[in-house]
Specification:
Strand content: 5-15%
CATH architecture of one domain: 2-Layer Sandwich
Helix content: 25-40%
Number of helices: 2
Largest sheet: 3 strands, antiparallel
Strand order of the largest sheet: 1-4-5
């Protein structure tokens, strides 16, 4: 017995397969999305870089405030500030190694401990968040007291030096 089934013929128009609706994105759409993502990434990186710089400045101010308090405690004990200049002198004096005239003194209780401070590679001076020693001078020309500051990320003695509050 012959088969009574009919075959269906699928007719495909040229250029319509696969159907365009809902199947993908055009090149223009993909490039637009990539452009928006690149802009957002640039904005996020700038915000992140600014936040880390602000955090470093805040840390430097905090450390300088602690060092200024330690210098006042030093002056209360010795009736004077450590005389001389440089971060190494400051670190030795506040750690208990030198008296006000800069002479080596008998070991005594440190005014500042190393907790929370970073030392330079040779271990002789406290450094700011950018790896530069804190600047200290006493007596400071033209000032009644000492100078204590960080040069920040800029070269030494820039206009935007960071000083304790």
């Amino acid at each position: 017995m012959p088969s009574t089934r009919k075959l269906r013929v699928l007719r495909v128009r040229r250029g319509s397969y696969p159907p365009a609706a809902g199947r993908g994105f055009t090149l223009i759409e993909l490039l637009a999305v990539l452009g928006v993502v690149a802009i957002l990434a640039t904005i996020a990186m700038r915000i992140g870089a600014g936040a880390s710089e602000r955090a470093a400045i805040k840390r430097a101010r905090s450390e300088l405030t602690l060092l200024a308090g330690a210098l006042e405690e030093y002056r209360r004990i010795f009736s004077d500030y450590p005389q001389g200049e440089g971060g190494a002198l400051l670190q030795e004096a506040l750690s208990g190694g030198r008296g006000p005239t800069g002479a080596l003194s008998a070991p005594r209780r440190p005014i500042v401990t190393l907790a929370g401070f970073t030392l330079n590679a040779s271990g002789t001076a406290w450094v700011d968040p950018w790896g530069k020693p804190y600047a200290y001078t006493y007596p400071a020309p033209g000032h009644r007291a000492y100078l204590l500051f960080s040069t920040g990320p800029a070269p030494a003695f820039a206009d935007d030096d960071i000083m304790p509050n």
